[in-house]
Amino acid sequence: MAKPKRLLSFLLSCFSWYLISLPSPPYPGEFTQCLREKLPSELIYEQSSSSFTDVLASSIKNPRFFTNATTRPLCIVTPTDAQHVQAAVLCGRRHGVRLRVRSGGHDYEGLSYRSPRPNEVFGVLDLANLRSVSVNRSESTAWVESGATLGELYYAIAKNNSELAFPAGECPTVGVGGQFSGGGIGMMMRKYGLSIDNVLDAKMVNANGDLLDRDVMGGDLFWAIRGGGGESFGVVLSWKIQLVQVPPTVTVFSIGKTLDQGAIDILTTWQLVGPSLPDDLAIRVKVQGQEALFLAMYLGTCSSLVATMGRRFPELGMTSADCRSMTWLESAALSFTTLANIGTPEEVLLNRTGGMSFSFKVKSDYVRRPISKAGWNDIFSWFTMNGSASGYIMLEPHGGFMDSVPADATPYPHRNGVLYIIQYLVFWPGDGGTALTAAWLDGFYGFMGQHVSTNPREAYVNFRDLDIGQNVVVDDVSTFDGGVVWGQRYFMGNYRRLATVKAAVDPTDYFRNEQSIPPLL
């Protein structure tokens, strides 16, 4: 009887997919009515609500996606538990309205709360109310909800045990859900890997409205949600993470070098030294104008750091006078683009809001072969051109733990052989004109093609860039071939496996944005 029972179970599963997946145009009135029937009214913000604009803007970081021309959601749902998320998904499926999911609002293209298509009807699931952090001190683990920010996560961990931490990004207002979904690079990745390398379990709602944990979702889906990009496979509500050890004192420094002070020679050397240093030391570099700023965090004391730098990177000329010693939590409160705000109260990490004073655009690259001294001379010349004044690049070293992880262990494939990642950033005031700045970034990015990885030219999904490609939708489903160009740049050989998982768990492509994983049907 075992085989007939399994067959019957399979047929019933297929039939339930069929019932919930019947082609349906969007019925916005029916959708919002369904939400009203299933959810408390205070969790639903429709466009007619007096609070709608404030809730929408609450975690938007980029004002160029908050203009009168921006396609806004039909409504915003602010769930406080898993059942609310399940109800919203089922209402959306039943009435043909897709949901976009926002945790911290840092999506560089704003795809978690807006649509580039002017006529799309969609809702937003804003997870800001799902932000609890529960630390298990005896296991050195924690459960963190996707709506928590990195700052809230870091604060909760360190206040529970000052010698525990978690490897993730440097910006404290980034949402956990987005950070983990794309990989999660940061200053401790050379020691402990990406955020996703330290995820033990997760709870999520799939496109059928089911609540899953790791055991129920299975290995393929658990693999896919750890680095396969947000908003492709369902709504991840919470993550169980492995915490890592940090010493009582860490040391940071910030050393700037101009061209006259040998910045090019030092930077040329850093390309090979940075990824090969002891894994408890990370030195990133910010290049802006005619200066290279070397920014470091070391999991140890100043004296030990000075000795290491003297042996391994004497060209930088670092001395004990450059050291700033503090707890790991205090270091997390710093701005790791400048190491400004020394002595900032740790409570700044609990501030979820970010200003919308500046619009920005971001691109990314990976470097596998060191750039020559002549190449760096040419790069610095770009920072003298019109449009460059508000732009910079950030170089973050890989190596260490990152070299030990196979490219297909998680969807994030940029592992062994990567020297560093480049993040290109340009800013301009408000939501106004961008022509000169955008032209500079596009030209500079084009020029850099000769110096970075090729076939494919790799990119980081958490530094989302719609310029490298968008999904092609046919019969209301994104096509695999239409996503190949951007998919292979973000995920390389893992793109096909991700699309296979998508076909298994969301064949009708309910969870979709312009760079979500398409189903390989």
UniProtKB/TrEMBL annotation:
The keyword Signal applies. It comes from the Eukaryota. Residues 69-246 form the FAD-binding PCMH-type domain. Residues 1-21 form the signal peptide. InterPro entries: BBE, FAD-bd_PCMH, FAD-bd_PCMH-like_sf, FAD-bd_PCMH_sub1, FAD-bd_PCMH_sub2, Oxid_FAD_bind_N. One of its GO terms (molecular function) is FAD binding. Its cofactor is FAD. It holds the Pfam family FAD_binding_4. Keywords: FAD, Flavoprotein, Glycoprotein, Signal. Belongs to the oxygen-dependent FAD-linked oxidoreductase family. This is FAD-binding PCMH-type domain-containing protein. It comes from Lolium multiflorum.
